[in-house]
TrEMBL record:
Any Pfam family hit: TrmK
Alphabetized GO MF terms: tRNA (adenine(22)-N1)-methyltransferase activity
Protein name stated in the entry: SAM-dependent methyltransferase
Coiled coil spans: none
Originating species: Carboxydothermus hydrogenoformans (strain ATCC BAA-161 / DSM 6008 / Z-2901)
SUPFAM superfamilies found in the cross-reference section: S-adenosyl-L-methionine-dependent methyltransferases (SSF53335)
Amino acid sequence: MELTERLKALAKHVITGEPAADIGTDHAKLPIYLVIHNICPKVIATDLNEMPLNHAQSEVREYGLLEKIELRQGDGLSPLKPGEVKSVVIAGMGGNTIARIIEGRPEIAREVRLILQPMTDSYALRLKLVSRGYRIIAEELVEEKSRLYEVIVAEAGKMENLDKVEIGLGPVLLKNRDELTRKYLTGQKEKYRKILINLQKAQVKDLEKVREISEILNYLKEVLKSWPIRRK
């Protein structure tokens, strides 16, 4: 079982030797990989809909792993019981959806390592995590088919006292000075520049939102201005 770079990045943060759960498993590629490579003795693979679970079951059966990968249908963390797993992967969803899933079962979420890969709204997701008593312990960027994906790893605990913008953009990512991080921050700067232009064009201006986006944009400009110059 070969994984995409994005899924490999998720697998790398799963706690070795302990059961894990993959929420919204689709074809169960990640659970199969985790078991085959002896990262996890057991994986619970869940999905909201029956059809993806049927596809997943076919894949799991083909690899002869029905005893080690358990398929469950349900919304978010609802199929899990407290103490069943040590890592929970939630990937390929919007950041607000991921936040809703975590908030829906805090008794589960607070006792596991959360390995998250939001497709959108990563800024809002980080802020919600920290405000609800989680700390971000690792972050990673993965480039796949010309798109950058963010991986956020969080556990229950107190985050160091950081500025709101630092938390939202990625407190661990901001410590990196590699080319991929520069590319990510440049993309974020362009995104927020466009948002600010649209806000300023609006007939009824949301002044609080304009202030917030301006603050993010100014922070990004300062960070990129101080970026180390690449030597040829």
